[in-house]
Amino acid sequence: MIRILGIDPGSLFTGYGVVEEDGQAWRHVASGCIRTGGKDFPERLRDIFFGIGAVVSEFAPQELAVEKTFVHKNADSALKLGQARAAAFCGTLASQLPLFEYAPREVKLALTGKGSAAKEQVQHMVKILLGLRGQLQVDSADALAVAICHAHSRGLKARLAGEGKR
User: I need a surface site. Which of 121, 126, 130, 162 has the fewest CB within 10 A?
Assistant: First the structure.
């Protein structure tokens, strides 16, 4: 059984989701959001760093899956997102987790079968795949989606590698 931490980085809201993968079965362990709004930017980065570090300490993931940065038209926004992403990475460095990155389109495709799926479709599939009920916060759902995408991808890669040995 592999425990995967998925991260959806953002400078105001950084979502995290922890799932356990056992073959084709996935189990929700934890999810949430690190909220940093209303603070100076360096304080937000510090909150992300320590928040993700606390998640890693509490839930002891074995692998890290992160959504790749979506390049915005606004260069300042893209730079801030990159810095938030780096703060999240740095929060995991002490654990030496293997890092896997997925483009937003890859995540949507893995969960819904459509790379251009709406956020609501992704949230719906996360709830179905993990057997969750009730409202799921957007950033948490996105982070869980990244973790599920990785769990699906690692299983597929393992099966393909097994076929290559025949």
Answer: 162
Cα gap 126→137, rounded to integer Å: 11
Catalogue the active-site residues.
8, 67, 139
Domains for the chain: give ranges and CATH numbers. 2-164 (3.30.420.10)
Mind listing the pLDDT tens digit for each residue in 81-115? 889 999 999 999 989 999 999 999 999 999 999 98
pTM of structure: 0.90
CA separation (Å) from 53 to 5, 26, 112, 138, 155? 11, 23, 30, 21, 27
